[in-house]
Amino acid sequence: MRQKQLVAEHPYIVLHPVGSVQLQDDLPTSVRANRGAILSRYWVGLTYYRSDGITLSMSPADDDLPTPTLTNRFLSFIYNPTRDMDVVYTEDGAYEIPPLKKTILEYVGRDDDILTQFMDHSQISSALKRANDFPAVVDVLERMFGRDF
After folding, report:
1. Which of 133, 128, 132 lies closest to 144, judged by CA?
2. At 98, is the pLDDT very low, low, confident or very high (cuts 50, 70, 90)?
3. 49, 100, 119, 121: which has the fewest Cβ within 10 Å?
4. Lowest model confidence (mean pLDDT) among 16-20, 22-26, 32-36
């Protein structure tokens, strides 16, 4: 399956309530996911922040997904094939930069090593306090992920 992508001027900032912070250059129209990920409905809670002040959420384009029953969850430990899953994105509404920065800092505070590999919490906090717009927040995240090395 050939992936189409929606490319933006700036990367998307992607946050998940489990504490995940990512930068994503595009929005693929299909993703590879294993059965366990599909059963856990990993996309619930993913929020994509666009540079124009709009948030997006992702969901499967197809409703024909395995039901998250206990048996299916157990079987996913034994047989966990990967498949392509078409996805769609829905605009959820507007966001402001201060709450976005607050959420990123909260996730960084919960992290013990992944998000703080290249910058410590105080450096990230200081840099985010100075970031007043989307490109500046992206710049902080790029440095946080070590992309400037």
Report:
1. 128
2. very high
3. 121
4. 32-36
Better pLDDT: 106 or 79: 106
The Cα–Cα gap between 122 and 99 comes to 18
CA–CA distance, 142 with 21 (Å, rounded to integer):
11
Distances from the Cα of 106 to the Cα of 21, 36, 73, 124, angstroms: 11, 27, 30, 11
Spatial contact of 48 and 27, defined as CB atoms under 8 Å apart: yes
Q: What is the pTM of this model?
A: 0.81
Q: Which two tokens stand for residue 108?
A: 């960084």
In total, the chain counts a number of residues equal to 149
Residue identified by tokens 């998000």 is 115
How far is the C-alpha of 83 from the C-alpha of 98, rounded, in Å? 38
Q: How do residues 42-73 score in pLDDT, each as one tens digit? A: 788 899 999 999 999 988 887 666 665 666 66
Q: Rounded to 5, what percent of the chain is helix, strand, coil?
A: 35, 35, 35
Rounded Cα gap, residues 135 and 147, in angstroms:
15
